[in-house]
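Exercise 7. Predict the joint structure of the components listed below.
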Amino acid sequence: MSTTTVNYPEEFKGFAISDPSEWSNPKLTSYVPKTLSPKDVDIEIECCGVCASELAVLKNKWSTGPLRCLSSSYGPKTQCVGHEIVGKVVKLGEEVTEFKLGQRVGLGAHAYACNECSRCKEGNDQYCTKAVGTYSGVYPDGYVSQGGYASHVRANESAVFPIPDALESHLVAPLQCGGLTVYSPLKRGIEDVLSKGIKPAVGVIGIGGLGHMAIMIAKALGAEVIAISRSTSKKEDAIKMGADGFIATGSAEQWEEENADKFHLLLNCASSATELPLDRLLKTLKVNRKFISVGLPDIREKFEVSPFTFLQSGSTIGSSLLGSKAEAIELFELAAKHQFKPWVETIPISEAGVSEALTRLSDGDVRYRFTLTGFNEFFGTGKQ
Amino acid sequence: MSTTTVNYPEEFKGFAISDPSEWSNPKLTSYVPKTLSPKDVDIEIECCGVCASELAVLKNKWSTGPLRCLSSSYGPKTQCVGHEIVGKVVKLGEEVTEFKLGQRVGLGAHAYACNECSRCKEGNDQYCTKAVGTYSGVYPDGYVSQGGYASHVRANESAVFPIPDALESHLVAPLQCGGLTVYSPLKRGIEDVLSKGIKPAVGVIGIGGLGHMAIMIAKALGAEVIAISRSTSKKEDAIKMGADGFIATGSAEQWEEENADKFHLLLNCASSATELPLDRLLKTLKVNRKFISVGLPDIREKFEVSPFTFLQSGSTIGSSLLGSKAEAIELFELAAKHQFKPWVETIPISEAGVSEALTRLSDGDVRYRFTLTGFNEFFGTGKQ
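Solution:
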């Protein structure tokens, strides 16, 4: 057995760091999984998308304390990330009812939701206050969760997604965090308009990993989609993705006047809130509509808007977190029906591959999403 | 004819200033009205509410330039304020269809809406981009509008409200700006909840002129209403107004934990946005609900909120402007049906009376709203 092969079920293996300075060079690490609970499922991982959240956690930008894994009550003191996981069910806790052995499934940014609170029951399990992140989340028993740049992941069935046969694994991977994160606010932000038989106008700000999927998804939902970026450098790509129009906010034009009162929804997929021309952007919203941010900035950044700006249209601003499990399933169906495909570059998993993906993502050198592949070959899995 | 008597229709008389330093001492002034347009109505004023917006305009706090009246193309270079007007129709433009001579009517913060744009047609005339404020607004012909601390006011019928007989003039006055300003976001913010047969929970922040009406209106709309204030000094009043509960944000209690995930709507009626514990308040919102501000601060103030704060519940923040004409009529019907009455102190109009009202409002010495009365006696009107 080579050193990369995993000795499941005693161990999981994954690429992990113990210090933020190592963010671009996670090392292959062996660790014990969390204790199996009756609702847990083990997924033998086939591939995993690479999400900008990973950079924020590995670089420790969303925290003011040390890496959370260092205080894990048992299991590794290292952090393995990755939360756009596709794989095969290889173990079922004794109370699992939704999945069967061998089934292809996925896992997004949450590995647990309680399924009992009012938020879970109302289809808002992404806001469950007991939810545990797929990595760097703390379970009630003190174990700090480990992500999907790994041989296996253990998660509660409440958070696991069934995946339709029509979708390819490396393309469905990025839909599970990035895609879902834009799908939920897009759907919730325009469903009232669609229900009146009106074609909604959606502005997608920031054409990167999130934004490129937002264009495709908004289009599939039936919206007129305008891509909004600082320069025209991504205009051609945005049109190919399906955008009906393009606004370059850094140009000298009076774009906010030309597009005044246009949008039913502005979805901000850019990672910085402070660098946006918010006061100008909000002028393009129709009455009582929303500007929703899904691109998460540094934890010290703040929105700064004058109350007077909102008065022009009674608009509001805020953020949206992920999407519900039901919405993930809707999104997969939408992708299968409309056959839209995220623009994905695959990179075979290895220390070099993980390092390349993280470094290039950090440098913005990605068009528009990475999926790490070849897990079965690397970890010697996939033989059952 | 005494010096206070008005020689209508050649002149209107009102209390006006020409410099912000005179804000607390408007002087009786004679002026020519704007040119009568075919849709205009002249209202002989019976009484007028006193709104905090008046202080902002008289003190010139919402502008970075000089008083707008100084550049009026014709008419007075002085500013008369007041936009919670009740009176009698005494003149009709030749195309007016909605009102008749002698009818009791009201006028709020807008004296004109175009009635032709998409916003007007969709019931959002308060956001009409061609709307003209009842005072300090600029008409297309360059006349700067003059408000209701006056003998008469001229306004487009699109902005004039019919008033039901059941409501007393001095009590309906404050409903037209202050009341409408809270009614619109309250109704729009909870109607989806009410339509599901659920009793919405509404938090009203700031128990002053706006907040005290918000408590009564939210209650009449069918909500559970929690009054939110810095100290407990207004607790007794809030309960008398109909509040079901009270939160003192300045207390040591963990009120945001006790009320986590409680509110369907937070309505901010406090005049300062920056002094609010926004990050704590937003924790009390349910998923995807709104924090709406109607208390307008100084023009230099900004909301400052971390994008992460919103993530706890996918909430949004923003402001709301006035309400539509249709909503004003709904509000009057609601007040007649539920017999709620703003807490109004009446002050007879005169230079001393206007000065007292403005000074005491500026000092916060009002429980909870002033209406200036006795206009007919003062101006020698009401004889037709």
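Discussion. The domain at 178-319 of chain A is CATH 3.40.50.720 (Rossmann fold).
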